[in-house]
Design goal:
Distance between the termini: 36 Å
Number of helices: 14
Largest sheet: 8 strands, mixed
Structural class: alpha/beta
Mean pLDDT: 94
Radius of gyration: 21 Å
Number of strands: 14
Strand content: 5-15%
Helix content: 40-55%
Order of helices and strands: EHEHEHHEEHEEHEHEHEHEHEHEHHHE
Shape: globular
Low-confidence stretches: none
């Protein structure tokens, strides 16, 4: 069997003071019709990305709601993850396609992983492209198969999408973050739209005092008496850490004491990560006020929380983004937030009201300067952003969406509990 991930325990009761009463009652009603249903989440990695963070919260909450839910990860070597990284980039618009060898590697590893799975579930949820072909090896499965896409397919490399479509067409449903992400392609299954969410009760997002945050940040050699700009994301060209460094250098002309922390994580399914990490270090050119940190520097969830809480401004200068939950994380902590005007970020920030949306390093720098010059106004915006996140981007709402879909796929009553639907092309 594929590796089973230990997700621990969570209780829906702990969210009662955060989520609305109506939402919690709806969850209980929807879950009652699904008691004991077996649910498998299948993904590529158990750490180092938004999908993993979501599943560590979602799977135990599904269990607490009465479902028999589990999470397993596929196996793969560098050749496989090299191919899937090419797929990932291509689906987000990269012109580089797959070689015949990469296609063979991708199919072979999916077949090997399929042989490690038993067909004994009511629902199989496959996350992103890496395990998407597993379904091809279950031609007579009685389960409902759902493909959960966490990336932007609005302008995909058509050759790579065409390679995946035969498998995707066999799913009972597909889920995208935004309507704009659904590719105009024939053969997709019925598609649904809902955004991801953050868990407000994890160590990464729980309440942390400014004093505790400063104490933690200080351990990394950062001067906590000087302003700090922070970006939390993988070392990935789509996250544009080099552009963040450019913005920081512009800000430093106005605020010479400003510091920058680029806080990321290295995931085993991202072989390009090391290359871009090294590019980022090189681009920093030894600047003693630029701190490039990762899980390899012992940066974990609590440390990320501290860097966000302590930041004078949190940046997420993505140039392409599946959704960008680090934006919701920063807003949930009521931090001034500056982010790229792309993807799901534009749904999380109301420009000029709850944060800043930017399209270049110069605009990013100007927004950071504004936050540093007018901290009270920046704080006011951030508080509005926190309330928006509370209503739209927390885990109980995500659980509710899954329960609606499960019931709908089984033909159960979901009256009054709607989810956005996109007709198959």
């Amino acid at each position: 069997m594929l590796q089973l991930i230990n997700v621990g325990n969570k209780s829906l009761l702990d969210y009662g003071t955060i989520a609305t009463r109506g939402l919690m009652e709806e969850i209980r009603r929807l879950a009652a019709q699904l008691e004991g249903k077996r649910v498998l989440h299948l993904s590529a990695t158990a750490f180092g990305g938004g999908v993993a963070e979501i599943l560590y919260a979602l799977v135990p909450l599904m269990r607490d709601a009465g479902l028999d839910a589990e999470w397993r990860i596929i196996r793969g070597a560098d050749e496989f993850f090299g191919a899937t990284k090419t797929i990932h980039n291509a689906l987000q618009g990269s012109p580089q396609g797959l070689t015949a060898e990469q296609k063979e590697v991708y199919r072979r590893y999916n077949e090997e992983n399929a042989h490690e799975l038993e067909d004994e579930y009511d629902f199989v949820i496959v996350h992103d492209p890496q395990p998407a072909y597993v379904i091809e090896h279950f031609p007579s499965s009685q389960a409902r198969w759902i493909w959960r896409c966490h990336i932007d397919l609005s302008a995909p490399n058509q050759s790579v999408l065409d390679f995946l479509l035969p498998a995707l067409g066999r799913y009972d449903a597909a889920i995208f973050h935004m309507n704009e992400y659904v590719p105009a392609a024939p053969g997709l299954p019925p598609s649904y739209i809902w955004p991801p969410a953050i868990d407000p009760l994890t160590p990464k997002n729980m309440a942390l005092s400014p004093e505790d945050a400063a104490y933690i940040v200080d351990q990394f050699g950062i001067d906590v008496e000087r302003p700090l700009l922070t970006q939390v994301s993988r070392f990935d060209p789509w996250k544009d850490p080099l552009g963040v460094i450019d913005a920081y250098r512009e800000v430093k002309k106005r605020f010479p004491t400003v510091q920058l922390a680029l806080v990321g994580s290295m995931a085993h399914d991202d072989p390009e990560g090391w290359d871009f990490y090294n590019q980022t270090v090189s681009y920093a050119a030894g600047d003693p006020d630029i701190y490039i940190l990762s899980n390899l520097n012992n940066v974990g969830s609590v440390e990320v929380n501290a860097f966000q809480v302590h930041a004078a401004a949190v940046i997420q200068k993505s140039i392409r983004e599946g959704f960008g939950l680090t934006v919701s994380e920063a807003l949930w902590k009521a931090r001034p937030t500056v982010a790229g005007r792309v993807g799901g970020i534009v749904d999380q920030i109301q420009h000029g009201e709850t944060g800043w949306l930017v399209g270049s390093s110069i605009e990013c720098a100007a927004a950071c300067v504004e936050a540093l010059q007018s901290p009270a106004d920046a704080r006011r915006r951030a508080l509005g952003g926190k309330e928006f996140v509370r209503r739209h981007y927390l885990t109980p709402r995500l659980l509710r969406d899954w329960l609606v879909l499960f019931n709908r796929l089984l033909g159960n009553d979901t009256e009054g509990a709607e989810i956005a639907t996109v007709a198959a092309a």
